[in-house]
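Structure first, sequence second, as always.
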């Protein structure tokens, strides 16, 4: 029996669980269809947040997998290839799926050693890049700054709240004999889309819900998904849309995330701000020390009235606009031949 892919003449078919559509919210995959050669058919499986392991039996039974390539998208926040590879390989044997036709996609280049075909893709960079045509471009002369820092998060995780409290309670000395607390709080606006306790509610579907705050806020404090250290053997510095939002808004930023987050961003071609403030926090492996250094840097930016040159903001914005983060993906798809 012809599969749905062939009968509908769709060359790229996205498989996701309709009960978990929010997991398929980020990069719009439809644009990739123009890179699929004639006679080639691809089943794109979004792993984890949108397709669960227990649902794959139905997926594999439904499609004629002998005539289609399979692309397994592990670019989401909780989709680690090393965690699901062995389970999926058992499914491949059960349903006679040829691993030569299976491609694994992740934002961790080290995953190449775990699977036969791996594609590196910074999906969240592409996702924010795709937002540009739908947004008005920031225009610097309109800016009237009321606060220096803004921070948006979907979930009120414990370590984020601890960081906020450290900022709020920071004592700032104004003379050898006096100090004031709360100065940083006056310059800082922290918004949780859901002000809940530790991960009680899921706000992933609000990933692109933020206002054009760049006219009243000069800096964005990025609180990434993770703040842990990276295992040098298999781990990666994981960047999500949170890091790329201030770039699309042409704002300066600090990143509270994994060790080496700024380094990875520079490796992607973007400029950071070590010429204007201390970014040594990015090299600190201990989160407690990294947190304290972040707060100290924020204090220095505020007290020293530091501003970011427009040329760096423009450079990062233009690089994002033209970035080829999905080039390996497009090249792989373009070079496929009919099975």
């Amino acid at each position: 029996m012809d599969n749905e892919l062939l009968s509908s003449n769709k060359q790229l078919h996205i498989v996701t669980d309709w009960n978990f559509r929010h997991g398929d919210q980020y990069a719009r995959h439809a644009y990739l269809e123009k890179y699929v050669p004639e006679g080639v058919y691809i089943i794109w499986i979004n792993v984890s947040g949108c397709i669960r392991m227990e649902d794959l039996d139905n997926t594999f039974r439904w499609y004629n997998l002998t005539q289609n390539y399979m692309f397994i998208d592990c670019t989401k926040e909780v989709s680690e290839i090393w965690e699901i590879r062995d389970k999926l390989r058992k499914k491949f044997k059960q349903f006679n799926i040829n691993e030569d036709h299976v491609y694994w996609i992740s934002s961790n280049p080290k995953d190449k050693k775990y699977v036969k075909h791996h594609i590196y893709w910074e999906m969240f960079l592409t996702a924010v890049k795709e937002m540009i045509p739908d947004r008005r471009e920031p225009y610097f002369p309109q800016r009237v700054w009321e606060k220096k820092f803004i921070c948006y998060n979907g979930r009120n995780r414990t370590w984020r709240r601890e960081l906020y409290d450290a900022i709020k309670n920071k004592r700032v000395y104004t003379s050898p004999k006096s100090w004031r607390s709360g100065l940083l709080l006056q310059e800082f606006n922290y918004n949780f889309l859901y002000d809940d306790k530790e991960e009680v509610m899921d706000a992933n579907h609000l990933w692109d819900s933020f206002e054009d705050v760049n006219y009243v806020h000069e800096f964005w404090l990025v609180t990434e998904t993770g703040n842990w250290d990276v295992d040098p053997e298999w781990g990666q510095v994981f960047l999500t849309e949170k890091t790329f939002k201030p770039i699309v808004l042409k704002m300066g930023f600090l990143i509270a995330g994994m060790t080496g987050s700024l380094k990875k961003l520079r490796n992607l071609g973007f400029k950071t701000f070590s010429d204007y403030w201390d970014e040594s926090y990015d090299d600190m492996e201990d989160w407690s020390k990294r947190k304290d250094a972040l707060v100290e840097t924020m204090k220095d930016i505020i007290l020293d009235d530091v501003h970011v040159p427009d040329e760096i903001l423009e450079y990062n914005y233009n690089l994002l606009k033209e970035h080829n983060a999905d080039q390996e993906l497009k090249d792989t798809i373009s070079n496929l031949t009919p099975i």
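Margin note: The chain has eleven helices and eleven strands.
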